[in-house]
Model the fold of this input.
Amino acid sequence: MTPLNIVVLAAGLGKRMKTDKLKVLHELGGMTLVAHVVKNALGLKPSKVIVVVPAEHESFKKIFARDVHKGKLCFAVQSEQKGTGHALMCALASIKNKEGALLVINGDMPFISTKTLRQHLHHHKKQGSVATLLSRVVEDPVAFGRIVRDAHGRFMGVVESRDASSAIKQIREINVGSYVFELSFLHRHINQLNTSNRQKEYYLPDLFRMAKNNGLVAEAFILRDAVAALGVNSQEDLSTINQIFYERQRRCLMSEGVSLMGKEIYIDFGVRVAKGTVIEAPCYLKGNSSIGEGVTIETGCVIKSSKIAAGTLIKAYSYLDQARVGNHCQVGPFAHLRPKASLRDKAKVGNFVEVKKSVIGQGSKVSHLSYIGDAVIGKKVNVGAGTITCNYDGYHKYKTVLDDEVFIGSDTQLVAPVRVGRGAVVGAGTTVVKNVAADSLVISRCEQKEILGWAVGYRKRNSRSN
Done:
């Protein structure tokens, strides 16, 4: 079987995006645009995927580190922006094969599925073409290259919008940005590309004109799926595809038994949500979050790369980032679980509580207005309102340990490193600076003093002065 190679064009600056970020590095559903394209390309199981990148491409190395390590992907550097034809020239140096098909895809087309790419390849082979592009008929062609056909509807070539006459600009069939070439044809003709155009660039679609001029078969395969053809050239385009993506996500989850209470629910590509879960709008589930069965997520929550087990209630306006929450827990409202926060089954973290790099044990409660950092809290512990683990001395972080069944009174400061033994009681307002033995009571506040009648004289003195 002839090996398939794939080139993804990702070096374009995308100036119409009006940002310093490369166009293909903008995100859709928690993944960059180019990552979506590469994922769909890898679905074809090619011999190699070559991503054409600019000279500064550290971001690409991070995004595709795993695929590079597995030998599935490599980079070709286009150090100067000289057009799509030049980008393909840069990639060809990485391809040893002289025969077989080469699929070339623009890196800003996240909805071009593996199925669509497979159909494209099948049509190319069936027609015996040396070059086949995907086209689409649209209402407003704007700045896309136009597909020119003769009076019998036969494909003749592509004219870029900036080089098109007024008559050609009326054509509504456009070049989508996905191509299949025979490598044998490319190796013979790609060096014949020139910059005789308004952009002074090497146009990849000019290869189709060369094929026709040489009496070879070149085709434009009309794509029926309007969404698959969508690319990104502006912030408006990016907003449009995000709306489509998240609506697809919502429909998919609802079909699997997830209840979504409103449209302003945004669920990223890598998120998994089990049946029986209820999510109220607005909410944002990001990264590789996993939501178990029967979870309820109330309005205004943001959940990033966190795991929430079955039956848990996340109350309104809570923020979870790289946290782990067990079965039948309760979080919020207005709670903040920072990275490495871990709640065991039936634990409770209440309103205005922040937890960072800590374990809250099974059945334990931190119900109000507290900061828990670098702590290990055992089972059935009660942490009173206003408790703070003082974990940082300005240079180093220290651990607080609360053993099982400890009771911490309100407004307590636990100055780490410190350990409170099993079943101990810490009185309200205490500052704990030493380890506390099991089953003991510790109180560090000053003794209360009461002066009878003092307030009467206080009021008289102040009333005379006024």
The two ends are 101 Å apart (CA to CA). The chain has three domains: 5-222, 256-356, 371-447.
